[in-house]
Design goal:
Helix content: 40-55%
Structural class: alpha+beta
Radius of gyration: 20 Å
Number of strands: 4
Strand order of the largest sheet: 1-2-3-4
Largest sheet: 4 strands, mixed
Shape: globular
Strand content: 15-25%
Length: 308
């Protein structure tokens, strides 16, 4: 895997300089326009605590150089407070975007672009954010819910990043996300973790990612990045054709698993990128791919159809 090759090449330099960069370079934004009666310092403390939690925690056993850190943005849009009569308990929409660089270019490819609307949590500015992989639910479920959600998505991003460098290379991190689901905080007002609650929540996202029925999607993810985007500079036509022709494999998965949340998750991140790649193909070659894409990704069908 490219990341590990880089680590081997520069290990001696990193050790000699004493550099121990973590895996994420994440920016947190707290939106609180809908909340009144709360000191603004609380939101500043929330932003600071979450930033430190994500950017300083060791999420893997690998060494990441500073330039290898995964750039991400998290927006926490607070929609209400005083939930359940507790002034420190909030409901919120959680959105996360993360990217990885493309070889020989200044372009960053999107790994995740997802909004999770099922979030209730408690935050006290005097209590540090804490997450323990071995005790996900913590001593208080509502307090533990926010770090559990963040850890879940961080492990998914790591899984996607590693998958993009080696076929199925991120399995161990996706499994950690699944363990979080299995041991998730459980309490009044906490949703998003259980299979019975919805067919489009955290449970089903990671369940489908790890299900062998969807393995071709993960293999396409590798092909898209390493054999497609990373090769685009040296072999643009060959790389473009590989990206487009391999869509047929995930089309079959889509036909066998209609309304899949994983495929929705995939296209939330990749639709614009695929549209750009397809726009570089001769117009006469586009119709079969447009047909496949509009069938798989109905929400973005108008965008694909503009390429006819």
């Amino acid at each position: 895997m490219l990341k590990k090759l880089f680590s081997l090449l520069f290990a001696s330099i990193i050790i000699s300089l004493g550099v121990q960069a973590q895996e994420f370079n994440c920016k947190i934004t707290i939106m609180h326009d809908k909340i009144t009666g709360v000191d603004n310092q609380v939101y500043l403390a929330m932003e600071k605590s979450l930033t430190e939690f994500i950017n300083t925690k060791r999420w893997t056993n690998d060494e990441f150089g500073t330039s290898e850190r995964i750039d991400c943005n998290i927006q926490l849009n607070l929609t209400a407070n005083n939930v359940g009569g507790d002034i420190e308990t909030y409901s919120a929409n959680f959105s996360m975007q993360a990217t990885r660089p493309v070889f020989n270019s200044t372009y960053n490819s999107t790994l995740i672009n997802y909004v999770d609307k099922d979030l209730t949590f408690k935050f006290s500015p005097f209590t540090p954010i804490h997450f323990d992989d071995n005790q996900v639910s913590g001593s208080d479920a509502v307090t533990a819910n926010l770090p559990a959600v963040i850890a879940y998505y961080c492990y998914i991003v790591l899984g996607l990043d590693y998958d993009s460098f080696a076929p199925l290379g991120g399995t161990q991190y996706l499994k950690r996300a699944q363990i979080i689901v299995s041991n998730a905080p459980d309490g009044k007002g906490i949703t998003g973790w259980k299979a019975v609650e919805s067919t489009h929540n955290r449970y089903w996202v990671i369940d489908q990612m790890l299900n062998t029925r969807f393995e071709e999607v993960r293999r396409y993810w590798y092909s898209l990045h390493r054999e497609g985007l990373d090769s685009m500079y040296a072999k643009p036509t060959e790389s473009r054709n590989r990206i487009l022709n391999n869509l047929k494999k995930i089309h079959q998965v889509s036909r066998e698993n209609p309304s899949s949340i994983y495929l929705q998750f995939f296209f939330n991140a990749k639709s614009d990128e695929i549209i750009h790649v397809l726009s570089q193909a001769p117009k006469s070659d586009r119709p079969p791919f447009i047909s496949i894409l509009t069938a798989m990704d109905v929400a973005n069908a108008p965008k694909y159809n503009q390429l006819k």
